[in-house]
Design a protein that fits this description.
Strand content: 5-15%
Structural class: alpha/beta
CATH superfamily: Aldolase class I
Shape: globular
Low-confidence stretches: none
CATH class: Alpha Beta
CATH architecture: Alpha-Beta Barrel
Number of helices: 17
Strand order of the largest sheet: 1-2-3-4-5-6-7-8
Radius of gyration: 20 Å
Largest sheet: 8 strands, parallel, barrel
Distance between the termini: 51 Å
Helix content: 55-70%
Length: 369
């Protein structure tokens, strides 16, 4: 039988992860099927998906009942539920991680309401790592300016981190620098850098969504011709910056001690605009030492009709020109990415609040039953 398209993608050096997790996904065998048939080697958790699973499934009811005997705080109840799901997925992916320490990861995120509080983010990240003692755990920390320091401190403490909500080249570079500094501090304290990993989750499709809206508001022929261009250009330049950051004498000294790079992880890769090809943000970002975390519909679409070719390092000069042309058309890139970061944190925080409301609702149902 011919290899699937996602297996071909993996053969090009790009890891396939999924951006959803639920108890049903693990218990039904669906996650194992995705691993076996769709080349899936990692999971990033999502509060929105979890809230949906909690509200539409009775899979959590028994654990919630037991938790209510000793716990009333909805956040603590959520964490207990989420930790069990994450641990189950981690155990399932453990053989993947043993074969290849770059993969087999499952991510759980700190409370997004802490995104602008360095100390609280750091403390919650450490707490989650202490709670879930698995070598293939990533804790997600938003790549805000306060988050960047927390990321460095966590790496310096020997904890693996998934830097999330990256939109700008500037903050992506700051994330890589935080990782490098953290590794240096960890080594200075006697730590083994081979035990620490990080990915930089660079959000893709939302860049086009926000930029296209502004280009359409301008309405000129030149502006309209640039729709659907900036997100791919942004990610391709980010990868160029990645290659630069993880080369040269500074990196070679760390690598000699066992350090590994902070891979680019392409997130938000479903296509939001139905006018665009539904696998656009997979096909145009295929390259080695990267991850693409996909929703279910994108997994299915790519398996059905995705085209596999090494595209990530194509058209770099054109990518730089896109930035120039977008600026000439009247769109401020810096304002686009600052807006996306702010709105991204707000959306994550809103999803988290809805999740806790869902926990409260489930608690109410079970108490009154």
């Amino acid at each position: 039988m011919a290899e699937s398209r996602l297996n071909e993608l993996s053969a090009r050096g790009q890891s396939v992860w999924i951006d959803y997790l639920s108890r049903d996904l693990v218990q039904s065998g669906e996650l194992k099927r995705l691993m076996d048939e769709d080349a899936v080697v990692g999971v990033t958790s999502n509060p929105t998906i979890f809230e949906k699973a909690l509200s539409q499934s009775d899979a959590y009811d028994e654990q919630v009942r037991l938790l209510l005997e000793r716990e009333q705080d909805p956040k603590e109840i959520f964490l207990h539920l989420a930790v069990r799901d994450v641990e189950s997925a981690l155990d399932l992916l453990a053989p993947v991680h043993e074969r290849n320490p770059e993969d087999g990861y499952v991510s759980i995120e700190v409370d997004p309401n802490l995104a602008y509080d360095t100390k609280a983010t750091y403390e919650e990240a450490l707490r989650l790592h202490e709670w879930i003692r698995r070598p293939n755990l990533y804790v997600k920390i938003p790549g805000t300016k306060p988050g960047i320091q927390a990321i460095e401190d966590c790496i310096a403490a020997g904890r693996s981190i998934n830097v999330t909500l990256l939109f700008s080249l500037e903050m992506h570079s700051a994330s890589m620098e935080a990782y490098l500094r953290g590794l240096e501090r960890f080594i200075e304290s006697g730590g083994d850098p081979a035990r620490v990993r990080s990915v930089a989750s660079f959000f893709v499709s939302r860049v086009d969504t926000e930029t296209d809206k502004r280009l359409e508001a301008i309405g000129s022929k030149e502006a309209l011709a640039l729709r659907g261009k900036l997100a791919i250009a942004n990610a391709r330049i980010a990868y160029q910056n990645y290659e630069k950051a993880f080369s040269g004498s500074r990196w070679e000294a760390l690598e000699a001690k066992g350090a590994r790079t902070q891979r680019c992880l392409w997130a938000s890769t479903s296509t939001k605009n139905p006018a665009y090809r539904d696998v656009l943000y997979v096909e145009d970002l295929i390259g080695p030492e990267t991850v693409n975390t996909m929703p279910e519909e994108t997994i299915r679409a790519f398996q059905d009709h995705g085209e596999v070719a090494l595209t990530l390092e194509q058209g770099i000069d054109e990518a730089r020109q896109v930035f120039e042309r977008v600026a000439e058309a009247g769109v401020d890139y810096d304002d686009v990415v600052v807006t996306l970061e702010r709105e991204g944190v707000e959306k994550f925080a809103d999803s988290f609040r809805e999740l806790l409301d869902g926990v409260k609702a489930k608690r109410g149902e079970l108490v009154s039953a």
